[in-house]
Design goal:
Layout (H helix, E strand, L loop, with lengths): L3 H8 L4 H13 L1 H7 L1 E8 L9 E8 L16 E3 L4 H9 L3 E5 L8 E10 L2 E10 L8 H18 L22 E5 L4 E4 L1 H9 L20 H8 L3 E7 L3 E12 L2 E11 L1 H41 L3 H26 L4 E3 H15 L6 E7 L3 E3 H21 L13 E10 L2 E8 L16 H13 L3 E6 L8 E8 L5
Parallel strand pairs: 13-15
Antiparallel strand pairs: 1-2, 1-6, 2-3, 4-5, 5-6, 7-8, 7-11, 9-10, 10-11, 12-14, 15-16, 16-18, 17-18
Helix pairs in contact: 3-5, 8-9, 9-10, 9-11, 10-11, 11-12
Length: about 500
């Protein structure tokens, strides 16, 4: 399905500010559909149509959350002859609200219709169409109040004071009409409250009648209504009572001739949600603490290995202990990142930065060496990130330590460069380590590695990550050196 911006670009000549205004309207108009108990369409003129007839294109469609929809078809992106929508044409031409009846395809009876001109910077850029379905007998007091507020919001749409520029007034996580409604007048006094809103007030310990009183007089410490009245912008505030009750208030100012005349306040009891959030936060804190302790334990092991290496008199033993210490630290790097952002996934770019610092800190090369990182692998599962980090640490260390032995003799002007290229290709994480060193020996074979480090890397990549690894010398005409390519599938490992 095409987006609103794509439809505007394809069918109209509306500029970017007008398109943004329509975006904000569509982000907020679920409130209008619920208040009107009606389906809503957003239509605008088609510019440069190949026929002489005038056409309209449907840019948006919204169904009510509290009433059965009248139109089952998805009309977004469809074009219609203007002669079939005469009320829309009149709203465009006259720039005023047009009320009447229309015949709609696939609907048996005529449909009561409101056509509300949508203005931006003084010009009508679209028409918001309300298609009213059959009512359930006589409207209740609350339904009449809803429709009255809907009329006030329609007037705001016509004079471009709705939608608000600051934020949308509807969307995921925000209260809707069915959750509860309190209407305040220009003095901040309650005009009416729906049963669900009264229940929310009861949860806050308010059992007296709310009508004619302000929140302060009711004993509620909140600034949500005062801010909407004072500044004329939507406000959001969560009011707590102890640790068990949380009520979300969302104030939507109502304006007449750009003056605030009241505040439509949507309320929702979010106590259970807040309790769930606290449980999740506690679990995240526990997981974060586990990773932090694992990291500390690994660092302790690393320190013990380093201390033992210093006390060892055998050069070969000292080298082996230092390599083991570095491998432990590379695993600790992953847990350090997870201790900050616990979960089943980790931003691998953070790990790579730490690995490069680790290699630069622990490896002493006789020749100047620079490590360059290009690209990234994004977010990876932890069961992939941990072994891959160990493998990359080994490969980078191997390149820095061994690629530049006897490299250029005593000429230190030729700096050694190790490049790590990271990218995603064909559902695989690709890592390429390229150096400009002396290349591999003639008899080198990855199947018969000459060092423990390469054996570890080969087994990690193939046996644990079910990936592939290749090591080849680069021809001298291409710059020389060695290229290592690691490809690991992103799919879940068993």
């Amino acid at each position: 399905m095409a987006t609103l911006a794509e439809l505007v670009a394809q069918h109209t000549k509306l500029d970017e500010p007008a398109t943004d205004h329509l975006h904000r309207l569509i982000a907020s108009w679920s409130l209008l559909a619920d208040l009107a108990f009606s389906d809503m369409l957003l239509m605008t003129k088609v510019d440069g149509h190949q026929h002489d007839d005038e056409y309209f294109v449907v840019l948006g469609q919204m169904r009510p959350n509290n009433r059965t929809t009248l139109i089952n078809d998805d009309l977004v992106g469809t074009t219609h002859r203007a002669e079939k929508w005469p009320l829309v044409r009149r709203a465009f031409e006259g720039g005023t609200l047009v009320v009447g009846e229309l015949r709609i395809d696939n609907v048996a009876d005529v449909v009561p219709t409101w056509c509300v001109p949508v203005r931006d910077r003084g010009h009508v850029v679209a028409v918001m169409v309300r298609l009213q379905g059959p009512l359930r007998g006589s409207a209740s007091l609350y339904e009449q109040s809803y429709l009255s507020v809907f009329e006030r919001l329609c007037a705001m749409v016509s004079d471009a004071t709705f939608p608000f520029r600051e934020e949308s007034v509807a969307g995921p996580g925000l209260p809707r009409v069915g959750d509860g409604v309190i209407l305040f007048d220009a003095l901040g006094q309650v005009e009416f409250a729906t049963p669900n809103a009264v229940n929310a007030l009861h949860r806050l310990g308010i059992y007296t009648s709310a009508e004619g009183r302000t929140l302060e007089e009711l004993g509620v410490k909140a600034r949500v209504i005062d801010r909407s009245l004072e500044f004329g912008i939507p406000t959001l505030e969560e009011i707590d009572k102890g640790h068990d009750v949380a009520i979300l208030f969302h104030g939507v100012p109502l304006k007449d001739d750009h003056k605030v005349t009241g505040v439509l306040t949507l309320v929702r009891d979010v106590s259970d949600l807040r309790q769930l959030n606290r449980v999740v936060l506690n679990k995240e804190a526990a997981v974060r603490e586990v990773h932090h302790r694992v990291k500390n334990n690994l660092q302790t092991i690393s320190s013990l290995l380093r201390l033992q290496a210093r006390r060892s008199e055998e050069a070969e033993t000292k080298i082996a202990l230092n390599e083991a210490e570095r491998r432990v630290r590379s695993i600790a790097v992953v847990h350090e990142v997870l201790s900050r952002e616990p979960g089943e996934e980790v931003v691998f770019d953070e790990i790579v930065r730490s690995l490069v610092l680790l290699v630069e800190d622990t490896v002493l090369a006789l020749h100047p060496v620079e490590i360059v990182v290009n690209g990234d692998l994004g977010v990876l599962p932890t069961d992939l990130a941990t072994p891959l980090a160990v493998a990359l640490a080994e490969l980078l260390t191997n390149a820095v330590e061994h690629a530049f032995t006897d490299f250029g003799g005593s000429d230190n002007e030729h700096v050694g460069v190790v490049t790590l290229n990271l990218y995603i290709e064909n559902e695989q994480a690709i890592a390429e380590i390229r150096d400009n060193g002396r290349g591999l020996g003639e008899n080198f074979s990855l199947e018969v590695p000459t060092s423990l480090g390469l054996s570890i890397v080969r087994d990690i990549i193939r046996a644990q990550l079910y990936g592939e690894i290749e090591m080849n010398s680069v021809a001298s005409e291409d710059g020389g050196g060695t290229l290592v390519r690691v490809a690991v599938p992103l799919s879940v490992r068993l």
